[in-house]
């Protein structure tokens, strides 16, 4: 099934789901498991009251991050979050900001979930580690970015970006030729998702989208 067909199917199931109450468990600690059927619903009750899972720096992530994620260099803190190089490209672990200075214009995970912060050329909803709502988006002029965004119940969701090496993406962009999403699906999305799956149990013990 093609990417557009998957998106169309998701949109159709979401439209149906919007008519009924989503199958969500009550808030609890430890966080409860989520119903996989929930990915068809737009109208989930996203929590915004928990603290962010880290402070957007490498210093509050595990000290063995380089070996844990098979990175080629030690991660360093940038304005975008905690960034590191890998054999396949670059990995950035960050908090997704509200995208606006005014509180009334702020956007949160619900906007990511519903594709209102840019769905790119590929968009998928999923359940991560049984307890977190998550989305995967492939975007960029040559499909050089894969974003895995995870709802942790905070105003600032966790986001892991797997990306093509900058020099290569610049060269491909200069060629002005469309690039398929296959490489991002194979090389950038799996390590981004793996990083989220390895980190969350360590930085958000007993947490989840419905954690109280």
Describe this protein's structure:
The longest helix is centred in the C-terminal third of the chain and has 22 residues, at 182-203. The chain has a seven-stranded antiparallel beta sheet with strand order 1-2-3-7-6-5-4. It has 212 residues and is of the alpha+beta class. It starts with a helix and ends in a 9-residue tail after the last helix. Strand 1 (76-78) and strand 2 (81-86) form a beta hairpin. Mean pLDDT is 88; it is low at 4-9. The protein contains five helices and seven strands.
Q: Any chance you could write out the topology, listing elements then pairs?
A:
Elements: H1 3-17, H2 65-68, E1 76-78, E2 81-86, E3 89-95, H3 109-113, E4 122-128, E5 132-139, E6 145-150, E7 158-163, H4 166-175, H5 182-203
Antiparallel strand pairs: 1-2, 2-3, 3-7, 4-5, 5-6, 6-7
The order of strands across the largest sheet is: 1-2-3-7-6-5-4
Large-scale geometry: globular
What percent strand?
15-25%
Roughly how much helix do the residues carry, as a percent range? 25-40%
What's the total helix number?
Answer: 5
Q: N-to-C terminal Cα separation, in Å?
A: 38 Å
Q: What structural class should be given to the helix and strand makeup? A: alpha+beta
- Gyration radius, in Å: 17 Å
* Largest β sheet strand count, sense and barrel closure: 7 strands, antiparallel
- The unreliable regions are 4-9
Tell me, rounded to a whole number, the average pLDDT: 88
Would you count the extended β strands for me?
Answer: 7
State the order of secondary-structure elements, H for helix, E for strand. Answer: HHEEEHEEEEHH
């Amino acid at each position: 099934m093609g990417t557009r067909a998957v998106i169309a199917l998701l949109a159709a199931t979401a439209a149906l789901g919007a008519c009924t109450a989503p199958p969500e468990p009550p808030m609890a600690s430890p966080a409860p498991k989520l119903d996989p059927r929930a990915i068809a619903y737009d109208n989930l009750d996203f929590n915004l009251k928990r603290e962010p899972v880290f402070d957007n720096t490498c210093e509050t992530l595990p000290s063995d991050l380089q070996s844990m994620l098979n990175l080629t260099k030690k991660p360093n803190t940038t304005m975008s979050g905690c960034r590191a190089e890998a054999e396949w490209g670059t990995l950035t672990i960050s908090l997704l900001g509200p995208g606006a200075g005014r509180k009334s214009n702020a956007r949160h995970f619900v906007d990511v979930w519903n594709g209102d912060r840019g769905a790119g050329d590929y968009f998928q909803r999923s359940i991560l580690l049984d307890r977190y709502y998550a989305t995967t988006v492939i975007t960029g002029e040559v499909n050089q970015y894969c974003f895995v965004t995870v709802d942790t119940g905070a105003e600032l969701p966790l986001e892991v970006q797997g990306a093509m090496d900058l020099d290569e993406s610049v060269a491909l962009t200069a060629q002005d030729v469309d690039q398929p999403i296959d490489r991002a699906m194979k090389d950038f999305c799996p390590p981004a998702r793996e990083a989220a799956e390895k980190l969350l149990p360590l930085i958000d013990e007993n947490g989840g989208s419905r954690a109280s």
